[in-house]
Design a protein that fits this description.
It is a single chain. Strands 22, 23, 24, 25, 26, 27, 28, 29, 30, 31, 32, 33 and 34 form a 13-stranded antiparallel sheet that branches. Strands 1-5-4-3-2 form a five-stranded antiparallel sheet, with no helix packed on it. It is globular and about 70 Å long. It is mainly beta. The protein has two domains: 321 residues, Glycosyl hydrolase domain, family 43 (Tachylectin-2, Chain A, 5 Propeller); 184 residues, Exo-inulinase, domain 1 (Jelly Rolls). A hairpin with a 2-residue loop joins β6 and β7.
Length: 532
């Protein structure tokens, strides 16, 4: 296919990639913000970030992402996104780069949509496959832009390059192209999220496959050529496939079930695909997670959603701020787990004194930096008074046996526990839960409680628990590492180097952290708070 831009065109421009140098002063042409963390990031020229499209190349991590217009909260206006860009050489210090490209002009295939895709390199040229939307046809389509430096991009003149075949697919959903090189077959594959034009209405979602040997000419394969799970969701989003350890992983997001990123596992890239007991990458609304690898580690990226009016009772929105980059780990049985990157952990070095504002109930013992709490048949808790928790790491090692005891951390809790959040480790149920008080109730109980206690406020969305994570492996020594990152309203809770629970908490109290034990005995070892 003639894409309208020749290789010579790029050679004539003589554009060289700009290496990351933390000591260099970049011009506004190539840099917007210097040396920032990704956790909590939103662009200087926008309110939030959307879907991430990570790409590792030449010693640098690039994250392309969808950027909605500023002050656009209506869903239609919010979808008029620009393709934006941040990069890092060390996953810790990030710089904001100029935007790549945006909506096309009137009559273009991407006139009203410039959405999620993926980047791949061939012969020194970078190909950005992305989703366009043509309002005249009312169809999504696959478009492409080219670059020689990952900074300056040109859309090809022959967009779109692929449209849905109405013989097999509905025309309304045709997006999120993910392109990769298939070493076994010796050609490129493109995964496209779609909907079959047959099957149960709410679960017609499927993956269409196109192939190419040069990234220019593409052949759409018949539906039976796709070996990926189908008819299990309304429409999958943001797919990717990769090999990690001894397994292949097919990762996709689903909005019609629990707004989560899920994965399937196989020992072959063409399946058959299996589920695991822990089959989600993260909790609810850590959405559109996608990953890249430097050949040593595979790191995933996604956004933590905002809530309207910056309220804990506000409706969840599409888009938010980035979560931290997290490392994905393939376990011997194929279960995919997640852990905090060591460079992020080591960046929190400034100790913050901890002082308990009060200890309620139970029997407390403190010795050699270990807090032991006995709360047989009751609930015991202690709240800490801490100044400035804008960007902090709370860490401890929790010892608790699988005998029915639950224990964990409190976040922004009131003195009498009338409201607040809690991270609970429950070994008996093999789970981690992030939840809050008051918990959301069904309508009958909400009505009764608000009449008897008018100051209570409930969220009309039923979110009990807020985040639930299955622990695939219980530690033999019953010791659970807990690391909680807090920056602004964003929070990330890492447990046992296996799972993470992310959420958005706007509430502020005089006691931003605390600990609790319910129905047994637990120990908190080396409880520390550090500033980044």
């Amino acid at each position: 296919m003639n894409n309208g831009i020749s290789q010579a065109h790029y050679a004539e421009r003589k554009i060289e990639p700009i290496p990351f140098d933390p000591n260099r002063t970049y011009s506004k042409k190539h840099l917007i913000n210097e040396s920032m963390k990704l956790f909590g990031f939103k662009p200087e020229s926008g309110d939030c970030v959307g879907d991430a499209m990570p790409f590792y190349h030449g010693g640098e991590w690039h994250v392309f992402y969808l950027k909605p217009p500023k002050d656009a909260w209506d869903p239609i206006e919010r979808s008029l996104t620009t393709m934006a860009h941040v990069k890092s050489a060390d996953l810790l210090n990030w710089i904001e780069m100029p935007d790549c490209f945006g909506l096309g002009k009137e009559g273009d295939a991407d006139e009203r949509g410039c959405w999620t895709g993926s980047v791949i390199e061939r012969g020194g040229i970078f190909h950005f496959f992305y989703t366009g939307y043509d309002p005249k046809k009312g169809q999504q389509n696959i478009c492409k832009a080219l670059s020689s430096d990952l900074i300056n991009w040109d859309k090809i003149t022959t967009n779109p390059i692929l449209e849905a075949d109405p013989e097999h697919y509905e025309l309304g959903d045709w997006r999120d192209p993910f392109v990769y090189w298939d070493e076994q077959i010796g050609y490129y594959r493109m995964l496209i999220v779609a909907r079959s034009n047959q099957g149960p209405f709410w679960s017609r979602g499927c993956i269409a496959v196109a192939t190419s040997n040069d990234l220019e000419s593409w052949q759409l394969q018949k539906p039976e050529a796709s070996r990926f799970p189908k008819h299990q969701t309304f429409c999958p989003e943001c797919p990717e496939i990769f090999q990690l350890g001894d397994y292949w992983y097919y990762v996709v997001s689903r909005f019609s079930e629990d707004q989560q990123t899920i994965y399937f596992v196989s020992q072959n890239q063409d399946g058959p695909w299996e589920r695991r007991r822990l089959d989600t990458v993260e909790g609810r609304r850590f959405y559109a997670a996608k990953s890249s690898s430097d050949g040593i580690r595979r790191v995933t990226f996604a956004w933590i959603p905002f809530r309207q009016h910056k309220s804990d009772n506000g409706t969840f929105c599409w888009g938010g701020t980035f979560g931290s980059p997290r490392e994905l780990v393939s376990n011997p049985d194929g279960t995919l787990t997640m852990r905090m990157l060591p460079e992020i952990y080591e960046s929190y070095t400034q100790a913050i004194p901890l002082r308990f504002a009060g200890k309620k109930w139970g029997q407390w013992e403190e010795e050699d930096n270990i807090i032991k709490i006995k709360a047989e048949n009751e609930y015991a808790y202690g709240l800490m008074s801490v100044q400035d928790v804008e960007d902090v790491l709370m860490e401890t090692i929790l010892s608790v046996k699988p005998d029915g005891t639950k224990a964990g951390l409190l976040i922004e809790a009131d003195e009498d526990m009338r409201s607040g959040y809690f991270l609970s480790i429950d070994p008996l149920r093999e789970q981690v839960v992030l939840n809050k008080w008051p918990q959301d109730q069904d309508f009958h109980w909400e009505t009764w409680l608000t009449k008897t206690t008018p100051e209570l406020q409930f969220n009309q969305e039923k979110n009990n628990p807020l985040v639930h994570r299955t622990l695939p492996y219980l530690p033999d020594n019953h010791r659970y590492s807990i690391k909680v990152l807090r920056k602004g309203s964003g929070i990330e809770c890492y447990v046992a180097d296996q799972v993470c629970a992310s959420f958005r908490i706007y509430k502020k109290s005089k006691t931003p952290f605390g600990i609790f034990v319910e129905g047994g005995v637990a120990e908190f070892d080396c409880l520390e708070l550090r500033r980044g």
